[in-house]
Design brief:
It is built from 4 helices and 9 strands. It is α+β, with helices and mostly antiparallel strands. The longest helix is centred in the last third of the chain and has 15 residues. It holds the Pfam family Acetyltransf_1.
Length: 161
């Protein structure tokens, strides 16, 4: 059975494994970035667990502006108690269990949590091929992002809460 919980530091090896299977070396969060996120934003870093094994993750800090900027990938602060915009820096699911609703469950969990904390929106950047997935979940495409993370063309996606 799928459960979703907040991250703990002991999850680190599995998180790195999933991240590196889902993203290119240039795109993937580093071990150092994950450690920082686990320490500073465990309240908005969730893992999907099935049969005791982590199979997916979603994470990102709460930010003041509506769109992600590249500095967030290395420099984040603890989340405010309420308000702001919930960002998603990473949503990744083990390739062996993709297309089984795990990413959708993680998004839904993050959204419920963001609503209880009175966040204004959920914001993320994605590649063009993932736009339909996020649109299906109620996100709006706001065009090409200024992000140059990983040397990829990113699109701003946002969902008002």
């Amino acid at each position: 059975m799928l459960t979703i919980r907040n991250v703990i530091i002991e999850d680190l090896p599995e998180l790195i494994s999933i991240e590196n299977q889902c993203f290119t070396k240039e795109e993937a969060a580093t071990e150092e970035a994950f450690i920082k996120r686990i320490q500073l934003i465990p309240d908005s870093f969730f893992v999907a667990v099935n049969d005791g094994k982590i199979i997916g993750l979603v994470n990102g800090p709460v930010i003041e502006k509506a769109f992600i900027t590249d500095d967030l990938f290395t420099d984040i602060k603890a989340n405010p108690v309420s308000g702001g915009h919930q960002s998603i820096l990473g949503l990744a699911v083990n390739p062996y269990v993709q297309k089984q609703g795990v990413a959708s469950a993680l998004l839904t969990h993050l959204e419920k949590d963001a609503k209880t904390k009175k966040r204004k929106s959920i914001t993320l950047t994605c590649r063009a091929d993932l736009i339909p997935f996020y649109e299906k979940h109620g996100y709006q495409n706001r065009g090409i992002s200024n992000s140059e993370h990983g040397g990829i063309l990113w699109y701003n996606m946002i969902k008002k809460l």
